[in-house]
Amino acid sequence: MSLPNGFLDDLRTRVTLSQIVGKKVTWDMRKSNMAKGDFWAPCPFHQEKSASFHVDDRKGFYYCFGCHAKGDAIGFVKETENLSFMEAVEVLAREAGMPVPARDPKAAEQADRRTQLVQVMEEVVKFYRLQLKTAAGAEARRYLAEKRRLSEAALERWEIGWAPDGFNALRDALAAKGVSPELMVASGMVAKSDNGQLYDRFRGRVIFPIRDGRGRAISLGGRSLDPNAQAKYLNGPETELFDKGRNLFNQPRAREAAGKGKPLIVAEGYMDVIALSEAGFPAAVAPLGTAVTDDQLRMIWRIGDEPIVALDGDAAGLKAAQRVIDLALPLLEAGKALRFAVLPGGMDPDDLLKAQGAPAMQAILDGALPMVQLLWRRETEGRSFDSPERRAALDKVLRGHLARIADPSIKNHYAEEMKRLRQELFGTTPGAYRPFQPGPFRPGQRRFAPPGGALATTRSSLLAQAQGPVEETLREAVVLATLILHPGLIPRFETALERLELTVDDHEALRRLILTHADAPDLQDLIRKAAPAALDALMARPHVAIAPPVRHPQDHDLATLCLAEELAKLDAWRGARREIEEAVEDMVGLPDEGLTWRLTKAAEARHQSDRTGPSDSKDLGEDRDALSKHLQNLIDSEVWVKKNR
């Protein structure tokens, strides 16, 4: 919907930003200067004690010097209430007493329908709340009081209700209120059978209303009291109001509590949230019958910067934690984190609170683990790393996790922590010193370098002085250029290209284009349109320009041989470099003889790759007969593909 010119400007002048923000924060009166329209408070977007959130009433903008949130009144309402732009405009217009300009008929009709559905849902909530107080709700009241230990006041706070064990109680009640059958079905609370009969979706269940960020009833959750029920918990279906993956149970209350400094807790279900809130942990939310989605995770982070995921201590709870970790890794950014509180003995928060009380729950929350610790435990707990191959497999998995983190700073810190944990696991903590043990070296014996450090022969070895990264980048460039000019080779070398570790951002962009458009008839033209600067920079490299596949673009066999050689050499160089890096890390802890042997073997492997193959020739296109057999062997054995050992 487009708004008339000047409407938004008029709206912004009629609302005072400090009044809008003041509903969500407590101003720091020592730091604020109200006479000048200068306000300071703890930021509502992240938990903090200092007042780093600044509102300038004269300019109509806010800015947080901690999390860098910024915007105007409309943006503030959007973020804090989880609303769309037009919904935020409507909220502010009501505050200012301004009529929102007439919308186009279709938009107006959609908004009116949503309003009608919200009204239907409120009637549904009222009906089920009344049913809990009737004779039919006696069993439910007994369950809530005795097993869940909820007081009358708690039942009112959470608007808990009871759906009678019949097929038409709600349907008839809504019809008596004048609700059309079409709206009943659209609300999701009444279903239609194959023969067209309407019936209540919830029957014989304790009812929990689900409200959106604005506090509007949008759906229900129901807990069956029948131990033989097919589903213990049942949520309403997705409707025009309700999207399971974009809402959270108890979102409005949790946001308010987290804004006052309470820790944000992510639990698994309705009763966990209710039990936590009633026990003094009001900033608790839960997903709605599904695993946490990326939208829900972003919503959670808008409520609190470092939520604690409270997990049942059973296998299912731990499995749920791993799914959250996999979801969160690509979304991590500075200031946004997750901690995990694993409950003991298969308990959920409700069980623990009933058995041991709030202090026990607080202790569990205080001991919550950062996400990197749980990730490390997943990959190492219960496993043996008694061979180089197993340790290498662990390294590969960890590198895969690191590669999924987009934020460079967080990726570096995760890498440092994993390196530290790895050193602890393998007993090579940096700085550890043990006396040198003279005598011959025996298998299984740990030996340590003398105080003077590594021997001069080790420090001066050819491998320790290698300068590989520059050459690796050039070889990457030749591989990419060859595939762009010879797209017919992409299927054969696709796996190698996917696994190739690239050192330049432009190379990464070109790889994505090559893999995505491998079947395009005009790959080079397509890449030139999509990434002209990256392609020009690639082809301008002198090392690329003189490469045989570039100089002989029609020679398909030559390009195949060249690709095989470049990929083989890259694998050898990088294997040697990784060995150097690990050896340098272990300089203090490893026996000098072992370190020297590792460096020597790595050097031999790298220089063997340099001595063999087409690089002995000044031009790959010369002496083809002498080279073809060797390179064909490389191709047949797919030396560029890392083999499992």
TrEMBL record:
<feature type="domain" description="Toprim">
    <location>
        <begin position="262"/>
        <end position="343"/>
    </location>
</feature>
<dbReference type="InterPro" id="IPR030846">
    <property type="entry name" value="DnaG_bac"/>
</dbReference>
<keyword id="KW-0862">Zinc</keyword>
<comment type="subunit">
    <text>Monomer. Interacts with DnaB.</text>
</comment>
<dbReference type="InterPro" id="IPR034151">
    <property type="entry name" value="TOPRIM_DnaG_bac"/>
</dbReference>
<feature type="region of interest" description="Disordered">
    <location>
        <begin position="603"/>
        <end position="625"/>
    </location>
</feature>
<dbReference type="InterPro" id="IPR050219">
    <property type="entry name" value="DnaG_primase"/>
</dbReference>
<dbReference type="InterPro" id="IPR037068">
    <property type="entry name" value="DNA_primase_core_N_sf"/>
</dbReference>
<keyword id="KW-0639">Primosome</keyword>
<keyword id="KW-0804">Transcription</keyword>
<protein>
    <recommendedName>
        <fullName>DNA primase</fullName>
        <ecNumber>2.7.7.101</ecNumber>
    </recommendedName>
</protein>
<dbReference type="Pfam" id="PF13662">
    <property type="entry name" value="Toprim_4"/>
</dbReference>
<dbReference type="GO" id="GO:0008270">
    <property type="term" value="F:zinc ion binding"/>
</dbReference>
<keyword id="KW-0240">DNA-directed RNA polymerase</keyword>
<dbReference type="InterPro" id="IPR006295">
    <property type="entry name" value="DNA_primase_DnaG"/>
</dbReference>
<keyword id="KW-0808">Transferase</keyword>
<dbReference type="GO" id="GO:1990077">
    <property type="term" value="C:primosome complex"/>
</dbReference>
<dbReference type="InterPro" id="IPR006171">
    <property type="entry name" value="TOPRIM_dom"/>
</dbReference>
<keyword id="KW-0238">DNA-binding</keyword>
<dbReference type="GO" id="GO:0003899">
    <property type="term" value="F:DNA-directed RNA polymerase activity"/>
</dbReference>
<feature type="zinc finger region" description="CHC2-type">
    <location>
        <begin position="43"/>
        <end position="67"/>
    </location>
</feature>
<keyword id="KW-0460">Magnesium</keyword>
<dbReference type="InterPro" id="IPR002694">
    <property type="entry name" value="Znf_CHC2"/>
</dbReference>
<keyword id="KW-0235">DNA replication</keyword>
<dbReference type="InterPro" id="IPR036977">
    <property type="entry name" value="DNA_primase_Znf_CHC2"/>
</dbReference>
<dbReference type="GO" id="GO:0003677">
    <property type="term" value="F:DNA binding"/>
</dbReference>
<dbReference type="Pfam" id="PF01807">
    <property type="entry name" value="Zn_ribbon_DnaG"/>
</dbReference>
<keyword id="KW-0548">Nucleotidyltransferase</keyword>
<dbReference type="GO" id="GO:0006269">
    <property type="term" value="P:DNA replication, synthesis of primer"/>
</dbReference>
<comment type="function">
    <text>RNA polymerase that catalyzes the synthesis of short RNA molecules used as primers for DNA polymerase during DNA replication.</text>
</comment>
<dbReference type="InterPro" id="IPR013264">
    <property type="entry name" value="DNAG_N"/>
</dbReference>
<feature type="compositionally biased region" description="Basic and acidic residues">
    <location>
        <begin position="616"/>
        <end position="625"/>
    </location>
</feature>
<keyword id="KW-0479">Metal-binding</keyword>
<comment type="similarity">
    <text>Belongs to the DnaG primase family.</text>
</comment>
<keyword id="KW-0863">Zinc-finger</keyword>
<dbReference type="GO" id="GO:0005737">
    <property type="term" value="C:cytoplasm"/>
</dbReference>
<dbReference type="GO" id="GO:0000428">
    <property type="term" value="C:DNA-directed RNA polymerase complex"/>
</dbReference>
<dbReference type="Pfam" id="PF08275">
    <property type="entry name" value="DNAG_N"/>
</dbReference>
